[in-house]
Design a protein that fits this description.
Blueprint lengths: L4 E6 L4 H13 L10 E7 L2 E9 L2 E7 L8 H15 L6 E4 L4 H5 L4 E6 L3 E5 L4 H10 L8 E6 L6 H12 L3 E6 L9 H11 L6 E5 L18 H24 L3 E5 L5 H16 L8 E5 L12 H9 L3 H5 L4 H10 L1 H4 L1
Parallel strand pairs: 4-5, 8-9, 8-11, 9-10, 11-12
Antiparallel strand pairs: 1-2, 2-3, 3-4, 5-7, 6-7
Helix pairs in contact: 4-7, 6-11, 7-8
């Protein structure tokens, strides 16, 4: 075997390398997610022998040419990409892969969190990450027999979101509201979190939780190793809901999860269906969590209120229509952000 050289590529500064890495991954039946910012490449005689990508705190696109398998190259790539992540300020790392690769990544210092059938498995680079997170959640546990949960993106927070929170709070002794933490949305995470906090401030039995890596966003789910969109969605929902039922719900004593009905988006509608399966019916050691679907709040014209419609209206600068669909707290934030247009 020839000598290997490991190099780190920042794709924004070396865009020509992106196509080269993408072609290598494609030859191994893998895709390249758009959020990958850096790639560690193993070069042998000018060609790519292996690579490992990084998107924030998620390792993606780990592949080794078959001629180099058995040479411990995967481990070397993972060590290098972990060092890269730490240099960028990411210490808690995640990796998603096919279940038949689990043992390979275990040997490299990753611990399984959840597995969705034979489709996908999620791992993290610490044996205590999820335990520490649950301990933090446990300090916010509230007494009661009916402990509810809502998970929302709130992009932005609409009257529909407020209606869902109000209905869930009414049917719960205490409600835990989680805001998905990712920056792939139209509105930045901090703005969405502020909207939610302001929008439910009138509800005395609600705790608003900042999102975490254990609430998996569909927008940032590492589905590069799954070619079919249906499999990506199935893996995302299965892993996300297992983590919720196995870890998050017991930590807070959650007995029921509320969700709005979904008349528009087929992906969200499929997620709601998966919620019934994974939280209520699939056998596992954790207790079932009841799923309660709340019918969507409708606009005066009879249309269900949706965040996607508000974003469309915002792009069209139809501010009067937006104001009819969002609470005053959201409108205030929008007016501050788009003050010139609103004025």
């Amino acid at each position: 075997m020839s000598t290997l050289e490991l190099v780190t590529v920042a794709l924004a500064r070396q865009p020509q390398e992106k196509a080269r890495v993408a072609a290598f991954l494609e030859s191994h039946q893998l895709g390249m997610d758009e959020d990958v910012t850096h790639v560690v490449i193993a070069l042998a005689q000018g060609g790519i022998a292996g690579c490992a990508g990084l998107a924030g705190n998620v390792i993606k696109g780990v592949a080794v040419d078959e001629r180099w398998r058995g040479e411990n190259l995967s481990a070397r790539l993972l060590v290098e990409v972990e060092n890269l992540a730490m240099s960028l300020g990411h210490f808690h790392l995640f990796l998603c892969t096919r279940p038949y690769h689990l043992e390979r990544f275990r040997r490299c210092g990753f611990w399984p969190l959840a597995q969705c059938d034979d489709i996908a498995a999620l791992l993290e680079n610490t044996p205590s990450g999820i335990r520490r997170y649950c301990q933090q959640l446990g300090r916010l546990k509230q007494p009661g027999e009916r402990i509810g949960a809502v998970v929302m993106n709130a992009n932005p927070f609409t009257l529909g979101h407020r209606f869902l929170a109000e209905q869930a709070a009414r049917e719960s002794d205490w409600l835990h509201l989680f805001v998905v933490r990712e920056e792939a949305s139209f509105f930045p995470y901090r703005e969405r979190l502020a909207m939610v906090r302001a929008g439910v401030a009138h509800l005395p039995n609600v705790t608003v939780h900042e999102g975490s890596a254990y609430l998996i966003s569909r927008a940032t789910f590492p589905g590069y190793f799954l070619k079919e969109r249906g499999l990506v969605d199935k893996a995302w929902s299965g892993l996300d809901l297992q983590i919720f039922r196995r870890y998050i719900a017991p930590a807070l004593g959650i007995t029921q999860r509320f969700v709005g009905s979904e008349p528009f988006c087929p992906v969200t509608r499929a997620y709601n269906q998966a919620m019934h399966a994974w939280l209520e019916r699939v056998p596992m050691s954790a207790a079932p969590v009841g799923v309660i679907e709340i019918p969507r709040l409708s606009h005066a014209a009879g249309e269900a209120i949706s965040a996607s419609e508000v974003r469309r209206l915002l792009r069209a600068q139809r501010f009067a229509s937006i104001r009819e669909r969002v609470p005053e707290s959201t409108w205030t934030l929008l007016a501050q952000r788009y003050c010139a247009e609103v004025a």
